[in-house]
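Progress report, Aim 2. The chain analyzed during this reporting quarter is listed below.
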Amino acid sequence: MDDIFTQCREGNSVAVRLWLDNTENDLNLGDDHGFSPLHWACREGRSGVVDMLIMRGARINVMNRGDDTPLHLAASHGHRDIVAKLIQCKADPNTVNEHGNTPLHYACFWGQDEVAEDLVTSGAQVCVCNRYGQTPLDKGKPHLRQLLEEKAEKMGQSMTKVPYKETFWKGTMRTRPRNGTLNKQAGIDYKQLSLLAKINENQSGELWQGRWQGDEIVVKVLQVRDWTTRKSRDFNEEHPKLRIFSHPNILPVLGACQSPPSPHPIIITHYMPYGSLFNILHQGTTLVVDQSQAVKFALDIASGMAFLHTLEPMVSRLYLNSKQIMIDEDMTARISMADAKFSFQCPGRMYSPAWMAPEALQKRPEDINRRSADMWSFAVLLWELVTREVPFADLSHMEIGMKVSLEGLRPTIPPGISPHICKLMRLCMNEDPAKRPKFDMIVPILEKMQDNWSGTVFDLLTGLCSPLPGKTSTALQSALFDRGCQQTVLGGPCTCSPTSEQPRLVFMNQFSFLKVGFNWRNITCPLCKAIFTILDIALLNDSNEERVARAVGEACIRLHLADEHVCREITELFRDDFIRALQQSLLWPTEACSLLVGPSCGKFDIYAAWNITLPKVPKPPVTPPSPPKPGSPQSRVLFLTDVHWDQEYVSGSAADCKDPLCCRKDSGYPSWRRREAGYWGTYSKCDLPLWTVENLLENAARDGPWDWVYWTGDIPAHNVWSQTRKQQLSELTVISRLIHKHLGPNVTVYPAVGNHESTPVNSFPPPFVHGNRSCAWLYDTMAEEWAPWLPEQALKTLRYGGFYTVEIQPGLRLVSLNMNFCARENFWLMVNSTDPANQLQWLVHILQASEDKGEKVHIIGHIPPGLCLGSWSWNYYHIVNRYESTIIAQFFGHTHMDEFQMFYDEATMTRPLGVAFIAPSVTTYINLNPGFRVYYIDGNYQGSSRLVLDHETYILNLTEVNHRPGAPSSPEQNPKWTLLYRATEAYGLTSLFPSDYDGMMRTFISDDRVFQKFWYLRHKGHVSEPCKETCKTSLLCFLRSGRYDELEQCDLYYGFGGKLARAARKTLC
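Predicted structure tokens for the chain:
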């Protein structure tokens, strides 16, 4: 195989991947000219290789011998996509090479106009001079110079020339590739080593600064008594395992030898100019480690440990502490492999006991869970970072070991430490090793901490310590209050300040049709806090999980949240995932209840308010939409959502029962014939039989042809207490294949993931959760079944996080979002709710690329954004505002109703700019006719707006089809799905643009006849009573609110006290 530089130049992705998988290969090494693999991949435009290198930890701002960064090379060769990737990964657009040239200088000189525009948009300065007094504008052609000047002025840049200044003054270091030969020689000739200065000496050996092959190194000379042939053999076998070059947060052993005349084992490693983390924190260096840098160090360490924990076998005898963490020239923390102990080094001796887990001090190494013990050590390290203190500095090693292992000695948190950092430490220092998280679970949390850090972002926590209202016992109130407001030792609670309690929420009678038999939202706010506090205390004090689960089941029964057998089955189903999410969560009970019940139950602001990053590209001028010319082509699109097929549906069974779902074989038989389950479906809390779903598809196939199909999920029935993965996958497979069978191979279907696809329902762990608890079992099957419809690149992101993008036609792109990552009901978001899977940031990247190419975008998803978590909803609304000229239609389901939600400009909240169409369900649940939607969209021609021009709703009228004329007891044999209404005709509109919907809402207010018609159509033609007064006002709030906080403001403005927001979410659908 050629060397890695050749493979990167030629774009051989397979060879590069194999090379990277070898831990002895250093992806940040340089060739003879200082070019790193990333330099070559960027220079030659090898986008796939660039992605791979960045993902594996390549240094973005690394410089070659001429001080060129990868961004210099990508810009000069016009690789626009790679420039965008580097900028997104924090490449510096104003870095200069040895001639003082920035990437913009190169882009202008080589006539890379688009790249030059992108660089200016990303902050590149147009008037900075190189060594020869030339600015980028001087390098460009006249037309480009004018274009960049205008763009720079719009962005507020000064047009005054900035003289060249040497930026690498004394004390500042360049980020260079590492010597490419250092990782190739495991064996070293002692005579080639030059020992310059002794750094340290202790009973285990000496530490020297030296040089080898022209590079600065650290030489560690081990002191070993009675050096024998066996020890020499062990040394030669063990030190190669420490040569781990493939991760940026691991500092490898470069090589080893034995020093004459009396043999001493020697290992060498890279010289780190800033020394160890212990040195920086405690020994008076000039470096300042603020809170942001502390989180960065913690993230580096956690990332390195996450990688080490993937190795099989693991690195033996590596005891994590701050003396073992080295700080590189670019302030990157790296775990030193040179500090791992060899098997012959004082077996049984406890190194650095202040950082060691109690079980590691009590048991033999082979009897402990190394991964859990490392997590304890990380918690102490985190404590050290935020307190700047040496743990147990006043005690000897012997005293520390005895007190930690036998007397319960733990680090004490001083006042003023962030409650969230405290809770992360508490989580990592759980007394039960089995309940500590894995490093790959806390890396995303630390990433979000780093991304959202701005001064006191973690000190914004309030409202955590409110005494509970109502009739909660005095003892429990005391326990809750003390738990939130006292501080003892790590593992206990964190300091905070009490605030007054928010008012309780109750349900609105007007929305009682949404009520489901089992719903955790039936609990009150005080009860939610009590339950979560009991759970929190129990799970963090080594109580048996079985006892906790049994107690929750009993509480469900005694509080009448559901029937007894439903309580027991749903407790068993949810137990493992929910308890695991709760153990890994950083939420206090008040926060958890705010997340799950609503903001009136407390304040939830962990990582709030988080923001996605928008490109610095100015928003294009907005052109109001106009109708297409008469006779222009239209696309006819079938829309299916919320099928909810019930495998146990039985015609003639009881339509009324105690369970959350009826019309099933275990629902019993009706005592009153009018309330029995109909053949085609039932007006009750029932889902559909398979023959009704198949009849829909047969009718849809006859009503074709269809240009394409949108299908936004929710396949299984509402028997959420008794579902299995096997059942969910079976239903996914059956419905997917039925759609493919009836609509044919020439119709492409674009699906989205619903919240009922998983089991437990709503359980969608983010991608950082691996193994059996992840969603791989579901996403992989989706990818397999949907492969006939989706390209491989879409299937790749579908397998990763349940979302994807695909080009439908030239000029029209679809984005399918996994809206479960915004849902309050997804209890995994208690672990981390900040842009799970980075889905919104990915969406921004897709939209910007579409804007650049002039594409229009449709977005599909299951849950409407107005029903999402507040921060997620706000960010999505912000994205729709920024890309209003690109996002021209949004399609959702979930509510089972025929409705919509509006989007307005953020500046005034008066100019309508978008509509989220919410289509009616296929299922009857609850008390509805089965239905589906057809959209008419501006068609496939040059200059098409791709806007929704009209839509139709079709229903299966159960009153008619369950009772054949002339034979009332017999159903229709082959019923027809009939047109309920066409939107433009029903509401007297000429188009369905956002301004039309805004006008229609005004008509709803002024003309009650039109509103009552909407109310009737919203229920698919089956409604028992009109919607008046409070009901009407509430619904208008819902329709106007494409953003959750707008729903709440409208709610409070009209005096509902938060009841509307909660009622709008109160459903298991």
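The chain has five domains: 4-155, 187-271, 272-452, 525-597, 634-649+687-1026. Residues 138 and 618 are 24 Å apart (CA to CA). These observations will guide the mutagenesis work planned for the next reporting period.
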